[in-house]
Design a protein that fits this description.
Distance between the termini: 58 Å
Number of strands: 7
Order of helices and strands: EEEEEEEH
Oligomer: single chain
Strand order of the largest sheet: 4-5-6-7
Strand content: 35-45%
Shape: globular
Helix content: 10-25%
Low-confidence stretches: none
Amino acid sequence: MATELDDIVFVGLNSRVAALDANTGTIVWDWRAPTGSGYVSLLLLDGNRLIASVSGYTYCLDPGTGRQHWFNELTGFGTGVVSIVAVDKCNPHDPVVAAAASDAADAAAAAS
């Protein structure tokens, strides 16, 4: 692959994942979930696994090529919007969650 992972932005929507060149916006690769529809949750693990979850169906993709490594339908868990967290990994949602918790604590303190 000509584009380095540091120069890729991953976008998930409508059951699809696209890898975009961060400098040009050009699509490097795209992938469509064979099962599930709608919102896509993404988590990049160790630079060599891109976890994509679509309506509860979870896939592991190669972040450089978009090739699917594995699939787990999580039978019995149901469907819907998925939250993904990995221990000791940077989660881009952490600052948002921390700010929301701080705002809630401030509001509760002000109300009492």
